[in-house]
Amino acid sequence: MTTLTRERRELQAFSASVTAGAARSLDLLRDIEITLAWLNRLTGMLRADAEFAESANADLGATACPIDPDDAIQDALENAQREVKALYEILIDKRQAGRDDRRLTEDDGIEAAYTEAIAQAADLHNAIDALRWNIGEHDIDAAPQPKGPIYAAADVDALFDDLLGR
Fold first, then answer.
1. Is pLDDT of 47 > 90?
2. How far is the C-alpha of 121 from the C-alpha of 112, rounded, in Å?
3. Is 1 a residue whose pLDDT tops 80?
4. Angle at the Cα of 11 (from 8 to 15), degrees rounded to 5?
């Protein structure tokens, strides 16, 4: 084999290696860009939802009657909390996967974006929890109070007599 033939093969192998490396790098950069865009959108949605829950919570006092007499809102809010918690846990796992990926650097911003999304998910979970509890407390306070005699703890026998119609 001549020196020229060997050099041509080395140059072709070198070109193929550079091309593959550049393509992989471009794919990684594209994936980073897509992930950051998705995380930024998700973080914005979580923030908006938390702000809505906080605003709704602040407006509870404007209503004098019970808000959720059949507990349908409570059930829906509990379901939302479960979903947000599941998302929170997925985000933590994905952030760890990003930390473990040796191709990523801190400058890529993946870990920071996941951390921000995780914080927003936690804020939303807490805002929903506060809203759920405050609706329950509001409804207890707004519920009609029973009419009739009020019994002291010492009057338990009299209460049972009245209930049984004796």
1. yes
2. 14
3. no
4. 140
